[in-house]
Q: What sequence folds into this?
């Protein structure tokens, strides 16, 4: 999978930009806060319909502009498609494929597969459970339109059930409506649980192998999926917890409370692992993502590396850089030292300064 070109209009600090990308390694370097990450964010947003950063979607719109636009051409298995992602202060988010507006934003998912790796990902082991659930959803939505549909249905029904739970404190006569919501929630929720379980089992196996390579068999990484509901029927679990849910005004059982547990040699990595061990586990996880996506869709994803090399030691840098030789990669960094020192081939490079890109020659 290849991003052939990228065009931005009023996207953060880019009033207008057109960029032709190489099939191999593309490097954007310069000082901090110049716009390097914005380029990678735009590609990620076009693939996932959301920024990898926290905050409001409209924050990507350039100051004093009413809308922002991302357009890219992506080649997937020999076919080139045009992806458009549009954000308006008035209308919100919209998307188009090959010039035709999409009725649902989710229809853009799966047209471009990306794996994003940033310093924040190095802390995924210690972050909040919601971040780990987001990690699962981003990957599964890119790979499975069915999963996307189930996730949308589950979230919609969950909001409706929670609203009903709050009203039941005053309107006990509406309790029968919970039967309908419980059935719908269980139908979508059990599929989410099944698909997440299969995804993490496969991803965990790959990550464990990669982790053994990184640590020279000195440490064993294990990744476990912990569903937010007891084994068996989700509908029965929802029924059993009704009184508790009514009291709290929210649904306490289901995929919205799922968790991923990381352990190293049997010890909880989140609480007992060193910073170095946690970073190694996060790197193993990201490298495993590349392999898993390639295995499931039959094509390599585009790798986005946002200033991550400075967070890794030499050995882990070497392992990461080795992986980019077989996939298209967009890298942001502050300097060229690591690439020159390690003899990494760069196919195209740009210096980024205040939202302006200057392409430089690549020396062989």
A:
């Amino acid at each position: 999978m290849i991003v052939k070109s990228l065009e931005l209009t009023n996207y953060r600090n880019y009033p207008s930009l057109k960029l032709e990308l190489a099939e191999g390694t593309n490097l954007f370097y310069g000082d901090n806060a110049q716009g390097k990450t914005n380029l990678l964010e735009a590609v990620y947003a076009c693939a996932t319909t959301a920024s990898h950063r926290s905050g409001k979607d409209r924050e990507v719109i350039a100051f004093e502009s009413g809308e922002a636009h991302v357009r890219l051409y992506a080649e997937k298995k020999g076919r080139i498609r045009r992806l458009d992602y549009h954000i308006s202060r008035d209308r919100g988010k919209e998307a188009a494929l090959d010039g035709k507006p999409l009725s649902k934003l989710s229809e853009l998912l799966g047209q471009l597969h990306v794996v994003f790796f940033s310093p924040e990902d190095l802390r995924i082991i210690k972050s909040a459970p919601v971040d780990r659930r987001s990690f699962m959803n981003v990957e599964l939505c890119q790979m499975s339109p069915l999963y996307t549909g189930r996730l949308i249905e589950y979230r919609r029904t969950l909001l409706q059930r929670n609203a009903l739970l709050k009203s039941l404190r005053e309107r006990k006569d509406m309790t029968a409506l919970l039967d309908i919501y419980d059935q719908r929630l269980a139908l979508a929720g059990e599929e989410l649980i099944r698909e997440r379980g299969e995804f993490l089992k496969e991803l965990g196996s790959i990550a464990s192998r990669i982790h053994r390579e990184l640590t020279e068999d000195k440490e064993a990484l294990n990744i476990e999926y912990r569903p937010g509901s007891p084994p068996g029927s989700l509908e029965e679990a929802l029924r059993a917890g009704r009184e508790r849910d009514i009291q709290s005004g929210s649904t306490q059982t289901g995929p919205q409370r799922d968790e991923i547990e990381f352990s190293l040699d049997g010890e909880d990595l989140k609480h007992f692992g060193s910073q170095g061990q946690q970073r190694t586990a996060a790197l193993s996880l990201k490298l495993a993502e590349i392999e898993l996506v390639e295995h499931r869709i039959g094509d390599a994803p585009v790798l986005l590396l946002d200033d991550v090399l400075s967070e890794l030691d030499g050995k882990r840098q070497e392992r990461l850089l080795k992986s980019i030789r077989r996939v298209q990669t967009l890298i942001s960094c502050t300097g060229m030292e690591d690439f020159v020192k390690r003899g990494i081939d760069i196919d195209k490079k740009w210096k980024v300064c205040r939202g302006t890109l200057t392409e430089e020659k690549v020396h062989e």
